[in-house]
Amino acid sequence: MYNNKKPKYCGSTTALKVLKDVDLTGKTILITGTTAGIGRETARSLALKGAHVVIANRNVNLSEELRDEIYKETSYRKIDIIQLDLNSLASVKHASEEYLSKGWPLNVLILNAGVNKPPNRATKDGYESTFGVNHLGHFYLTYLLMNKLRESAPSRLVVVSSDLHSRSGIKPSASLDEKLNKLIPNPPEEDIALGRGSQTFTSIVAFVSKPFTKNFEQGAATTVYCAASPFAENESGRYYADCNDAEKDLHKALARDESLQDALWSKSLEFIKKFERNNVTHL
C-alpha cells in the first residue's frame, strides 16, 4: 500500500529515492539512449526495482557493459538489448519489429536519447540531424509501438526534455510555415553548420551551468518519477521538473500551440509514410 501523501521532492532527489516504495516486478520498460548519463542511471534504477528493462542503443558493446554492471548489483537478471540507431528510419523499423517479435508487453516507453551536436549534418534519410534523431526517429518508434503500448495499459510514454525548449528562437507571432521551417530545417551547409553548432553549444553551456549541476542520480529522478511513480499514474500531458509539475515553467506560447502541434504531427507522418512507400528494408 502506498502512502497517499506525496513526498517532497526537489532538485537533489535521486532516482532511487523516488522509487523507494515502488515494486516494478512484472513491468517491461523500453528506454532509448542508456549508454551514458541520465539514460544510464534511469535504466539502472528501474532494473534495481525489478523491472524488465529493454535498452535500445546504437552501440551494443556499451549496452552489454551497462547490463553487466547492473547485474553486479542485483540477482535479478532481466535486461535485454535491442540495437537502435535513431539516425536511420530503417534501423528504427528493424528495432520495433524485433521488440514486437519478442511478445513482450510495453508498460513504459521512455524516449531519452538525443543529440546536441550531431557528428553528421544529415541523417541517413536526408533530414537535418538534430530534427531527425531527436524528433523523427523517436516519433517513428512511438508510431510503430503505439498499439503495443495501448495493449499493455495502464502504460506510460515519457519524453525527456529540458528548459532549452524555451530557447528555440522561434517567435510565437511567426507564421505556421515559419515555425515549421525552424523546427524542420534543411541540412545546413558546412560554414552554417559550424556557426549553428557553436551557438547551440553556448546555449547548452549556459543551461548546464546553472545552478551547479545535478549528478546523474538526481538527473534521472524526474524521468523515473514520470515512468513509475504512483503519484503520476493519473496525470498526462504535463511538463515536469524536479519530480514536480512544472507547467508554470513551460514555454506555453509554442509548446501548447495546437496548430503547430498538428502541423508537426502531419509533417512527421508524411515523412515516415514516404519512407515506408520506398520500401527501405536494409540498414
Descriptive overview:
GO terms for molecular function: oxidoreductase activity. Belongs to the short-chain dehydrogenases/reductases (SDR) family. Keywords: NADP, Oxidoreductase. Pfam families: adh_short (PF00106). The protein has 283 residues and is of the alpha/beta class. It has one domain: NAD(P)-binding Rossmann-like Domain (Rossmann fold), CATH 3.40.50. Helix content is 45%, strand content 10%. It has 11 helices and 7 strands. It has helices at 15-18, 37-48, 60-71, 89-101, 129-151, 176-183, 190-208, 216-219, 221-228, 252-255, 258-277; strands spanning 28-32, 52-57, 79-83, 108-111, 156-159, 240-241, 244-245. A 5-stranded parallel beta sheet has the order 3-2-1-4-5, sandwiched between helices. A two-stranded antiparallel sheet has the order 6-7. Helix 4 packs parallel to helix 5 (129-151) and helix 6 (176-183) packs across helix 11 (258-277). It is globular. The chain starts with 14 loop residues before the first helix and ends in a 6-residue tail after the last helix. The model is unreliable at 192-212 (pLDDT under 50).
Q: What proportion of the residues is helical, as a percent range?
A: 40-55%
How many H/I helices? 11
Biggest sheet: strands side by side, in what order? 3-2-1-4-5
Q: Would you tell me which CATH topology applies?
A: Rossmann fold
CATH class: Alpha Beta
State which percent range the strand residues make up: 5-15%
Oligomer category: single chain
Write out the CATH superfamily name: NAD(P)-binding Rossmann-like Domain
Q: Measure the end-to-end span.
A: 47 Å
Pfam family, one: adh_short
Family: Belongs to the short-chain dehydrogenases/reductases (SDR) family.
Keywords: NADP, Oxidoreductase
InterPro entries: NAD(P)-bd_dom_sf, SDR_fam
